[in-house]
Automatic annotation (TrEMBL):
Belongs to the fatty acid desaturase type 1 family. Pathway: Lipid metabolism. Residues 24-59 form the Fatty acid desaturase N-terminal domain. This is Delta-12 fatty acid desaturase.
Length: 382
């Protein structure tokens, strides 16, 4: 398994673990320092040249797909165009998700040794995908600081049964799950940015575009303005393109791939932190290491590579978020013997896992009769 390869998923019965077997929730017998010692030191080294090579590679692919679509698709017969455009949308959406992941890496200072380079690249790449870079960088940093905490985690925070909306029980059926998944994958990301949907509760309205919202402190507010300016500039550029080329052209070349990017972003995050085997903790039980380990690596097949392995090295990412993605596979292989049962990989195809988690992970509650009242598990019965 090389640093840029795909993680192999156990296939034989002797190798394969029940993916629904619960993660150990007791304090682990190792420390973060023990885990770090198992990783080759070069895995923590960031290469500006190598990081930029992934930017160039992804943008070259995106430009190639765009060129082919805009140069040749109109020459095809109508019935072939009906096939060609969905193929373009899928390929372009996947490649641009990889661009999104690189910008995410910039937000973690994992792109280079220079913070100003990371923030400049991240701001440009994320703004081009209509993401407020600094706004999300700071809220995402708090997610990493509080993963698995029911009170302080920032995203996909599950609710106890007493806080579930009254209509949720009527959505607990195949039609309801389809409706919920469609809305989540298409509108979930903009709703989270604008209205903090699925985020942690605040004492007042929280919005990623508001510099004076409760998400940010005084030192961060100026950069929130800068994020807003980046999104506004990108939106204005898209407006000018629409005026010159037409709205339909913009939707076909940019809009639909962006919807796919947003859908994959939500799906990847959802499946990394939502699983019947993962615990969540209240303040009486939570600590940083157990929270970081309450994370699930997933196998997306060939898309692991396209998404720069953010999918199948997420446990490592939560333990060492400044590690560049091109070393994460090697690091994951190194730490698995140390983590033992605390390492979790579910090789279920993501489309099956998405449906299973929507069915099985409705709310969280402590197990009845357990002394660990601060450890919460997903439940599926109303």
């Amino acid at each position: 398994m090389g640093a840029g390869g795909r993680m192999s998923v156990p296939t034989t019965k002797s190798e394969q673990k029940n993916p629904l077997q619960r993660v150990p929730h007791s304090k682990p017998p190792f420390t973060l320092g023990d885990v770090k010692k198992a990783i080759p030191p070069h895995c923590f080294q960031r290469s500006l040249f190598r990081s930029f090579s992934y930017v160039v590679y992804d943008l070259s692919l995106a430009s190639l797909f765009y060129y082919i679509a805009t140069t040749y698709f109109h020459l095809l017969p109508q019935h072939f165009r009906c096939i060609a455009w969905p193929v373009y949308w899928t390929l372009q959406g996947c490649v641009l998700t990889g661009v999104w992941v690189i910008a995410h890496e910039c937000g973690h200072h994992a792109f280079s040794d220079y913070q100003w380079v990371d923030d400049t690249v991240g701001l440009i790449l994320h703004s081009s995908l209509l993401v407020p870079y600094f706004s999300w960088k700071y809220s995402h940093r708090r997610h990493h600081s509080n993963t698995g905490s029911l009170e302080r985690d920032e995203v996909f925070v599950p609710k106890p049964k007493s806080q579930i909306a009254w209509y949720s029980q009527y959505l607990n059926n195949p039609i309801g799950r389809i409706l919920t998944l469609v809305i989540t994958l298409t509108l979930g990301w903009p709703l989270y940015l604008a209205f903090n949907v699925s985020g942690r509760p605040y004492d007042r309205f929280a919005c990623h575009y508001n510099p004076y919202g409760p998400i940010y402190n005084d030192r961060e507010r100026l950069q929130i303005y800068l994020s807003d300016a980046g999104v506004i500039a990108a939106t204005y550029l898209l407006y000018r393109v629409a005026m010159a080329k037409g709205l339909a052209w913009l939707i076909c070349t940019y809009g639909v791939p962006l919807l796919i990017v947003n859908g994959f972003l939500v799906l990847i995050t959802y499946l990394q932190h939502t699983h019947p085997a993962l615990p969540h903790y209240d303040s009486s039980e939570w600590d940083w290491l157990r929270g970081a380990l309450a994370t699930m690596d997933r196998d997306y097949g060939v898309l692991n590579k396209v998404f720069h392995n953010i999918t199948d090295t997420h446990v490592t990412h939560h333990l060492f978020s400044t590690m560049p993605h091109y070393h994460a596979m090697e690091a994951t292989k190194a730490i698995k013997p140390i983590l033992g049962e605390y390492y979790q990989l579910d090789g279920t195809p993501f489309y099956k896992a998405m449906w299973r988690e929507a069915r099985e992970c409705l709310y969280v509650e402590p197990d009845e009769g357990t002394p660990n009242k601060g450890v919460f598990w997903y439940k599926n019965k109303f």
